[in-house]
Amino acid sequence: MIRIDGSYGEGGGQILRTALALSMITGQPVEFYNLRVKRPNPGLQPQHLTAIHAAATISNARVEGAIIGSTELRFEPNEVVGGEFMFDIEDISGQGSAGAVMLVAQTVLLPLALKGQSAKITIIGGTHVGWSPGTDYVEYVYLPALRHFGVNARVETLEGGFYPRGGGRAVLYVEPAQTPLTPIDWRERGKLKAIRLIFTLSNLPENILRRGDQAAETLIGLIGLRPEFVHRVLPSRGFGLSVTLAAEAEHGYAGFIRLGRRGIAIEQVVEEAWDEFTKWAKTRAAVDYFLSDQLILPALFAKGASAWTTHRATSHLRTLLWLVPQLVKTGVELTQQADGNSLVRILPGEDAINLVANGKSSDIYEETENPAF
Question: Is the full-model pTM beyond 0.85?
């Protein structure tokens, strides 16, 4: 049984989600303590419980401690099995919830794909909420990045779920992956290939979309690119606006999300997303800081070393680099380059590469050296 201190580093839900995913992939049972004790609302919250329930459902796991506010959890997985599932964050909270649906989806996506399972997963909750990736980011940034490893999945957003009412509906489709995965080398970003503006609107005047297009064309024209526009008008129990600026480069992806607020013009929301994009673009880093976190898990199961650069080494990133060697043999390295960007390197151990194919458990206590590129 691997014991994990949930208060380490940023001490948030990402420790839980990542460890659950690795537990299902490796077959290693895990026990958490001090879960989210640093947060204003400590312990497990509805979206965390939904992620646990989803993980337990697809792996027929034995679970102890999965209640609201709990700071301890025990998770013992069995075989991961695909199929058709539905998970409702509101069922856990007992009321309207805008808990992020994609954080739940990311808990089960890689275990299903790496175990050779296909699945259709419907999740009800928040599709476009603060402090987490919206479904538009997942569709245009995260999932395209996973395809470079050989992981294929897609997402459909059927109903918008905005804070605070939630109630959105998204469907994740997962395909079996060929293992081991393909490593990536995204140390150099290369040229920008495309910029996409995804506007998602619910119960607001649709002329907002035209104004958003005009604002984006003016800004993006400054760098000589023509943006691609995606407009989504979704049914929703509430009202809301999300702007996602997704950048695709020769070797990397990045996304920048801004949500509309009462009294704030669409032009300002677009400009805020643009400002975040330009900060990243000037650095020449390959990926944004959120995507950098999400590349670690697939890199662990690639046949060979992976590397990428990001413009910000967050506490989330450092926490995950502390966490993953506890569950799989791997070399991890984080270095700051002369240009200020951070370079992440992952060198899977033989157990990490062969684990999925052979169904073996890795010796997590064996020391491994940092990779040498």
Answer: yes
